[in-house]
Design brief:
Layout: H1 4-23, H2 29-45, H3 48-66, H4 69-75, H5 87-106, H6 110-133, E1 141-142, E2 156-157, H7 159-178, H8 187-210, H9 218-239
Antiparallel strand pairs: 1-2
C-alpha cells in the first residue's frame, strides 16, 4: 500500500514544477493535469532519481520549445498555442516511461530501468533536439531519401538536429550514471543509443506514416517511436 505521506510529497513536488510551468505557458491545463499523472506515478512507483530524469525531459523540451520561439514562428515551424504542450503530447512522450516505472515498482528488475532510460532519452532527444534542429541555417533533408525539404517538414533531419539529439540522449545517460542509477544497466550506452534510435524512428514515422495516414498524428508518432526506442534500449541492455 502506498503511504499517504508519499502521495502528498509527490503531489507537492509536481505542483512546485507544474504550476509555474502552467503560468509560463509551457503546458496548458490538460498538460498540467496529465503531468501530475505521469510525474506522481513515477515518484510513487520508483524514487526521486527516476523523477529527475522525466523532469529533465520536461525541462529541456520546454526550454528548447521556448528558445528563439519568435524566430521559429516567423519560419512557420513554432509549436502551437505559444509553445504550450497539452495532454496528448505529455502522454505521447511520457506514457512509455511511466509504464516502465510502474513495472519497476511492481515487479522490479534492471531491465525496466534500461527501458525507462531509453524511453526518456528518446522522448527528450526527439522533442528538444527537433526544436533545436528547426533553427538550422541549412535546409533539412528527408530522412528516407535525403532530399531537401522545407524546415518543419515531417521526417526532416539536419546536422544540427541530429547532433543535438545525440548529445541530449548522451546527457540523459550521463545524468543517470552520475546519480548512481547504473547498477549494471550501462546507463550511458543504453540511453544514448536507445534514445538516438528512438528519435530517428520518430523521423522515419513522420516521413512515412504520419504524412500518409490521415488519422495518424504527431502524438502517435511520439508514442510509437518512444516505445521502439525503449525496446531498443532493452535489447542493448541484454546485449551488453
Amino acid at each position: 500500500m502506498i503511504d499517504p505521506i508519499h502521495i502528498i510529497i509527490a503531489f507537492a513536488i509536481c505542483s512546485v514544477i507544474g504550476l509555474p510551468s502552467y503560468k509560463m505557458n509551457v503546458v496548458d491545463f490538460s498538460g498540467l493535469l496529465s503531468g501530475y499523472i505521469v510525474g506522481m506515478g513515477v515518484i510513487l512507483f520508483t524514487d526521486l532519481k527516476w523523477f529527475v530524469l522525466i523532469f529533465m525531459f520536461f525541462f529541456l523540451s520546454g526550454a528548447a520549445t521556448k528558445y528563439k520561439y519568435d524566430q521559429k514562428k516567423k519560419k512557420g515551424v513554432a509549436q502551437g498555442k505559444k509553445g504550450a504542450r497539452g495532454y496528448l503530447n505529455v502522454f505521447g512522450n511520457g506514457l512509455v516511461a511511466l509504464s516502465f516505472a510502474v513495472f519497476e515498482g511492481v515487479i522490479g528488475g534492471e531491465v525496466f530501468l534500461a527501458g525507462y532510460l531509453a524511453a526518456i532519452a528518446s522522448a527528450t532527444s526527439d522533442t528538444a533536439g527537433g526544436e533545436i534542429g528547426r533553427l538550422s541555417k541549412h535546409k533539412p533533408r528527408l530522412i528516407t531519401n535525403f532530399k531537401e525539404v522545407p524546415t518543419g517538414s515531417e521526417g526532416a533531419i539536419s546536422i544540427l538536429g541530429e547532433t543535438a539529439e545525440f548529445l541530449i540522449a548522451l546527457f540523459i545517460g550521463v545524468l543517470a550514471f552520475g546519480m548512481g542509477m547504473d547498477h549494471g544497466t550501462n546507463a550511458i550506452i543504453v540511453a544514448t543509443l536507445g534514445g538516438f534510435i528512438g528519435a530517428n524512428i520518430d523521423s522515419v514515422l513522420g516521413a512515412t506514416v504520419e504524412t500518409n495516414v490521415q488519422w495518424w498524428g504527431n502524438n502517435w508518432t511520439n508514442f510509437i517511436s518512444t516505445l521502439l526506442g525503449a525496446i531498443a534500449g532493452v535489447g542493448i541492455y541484454y546485449l551488453l
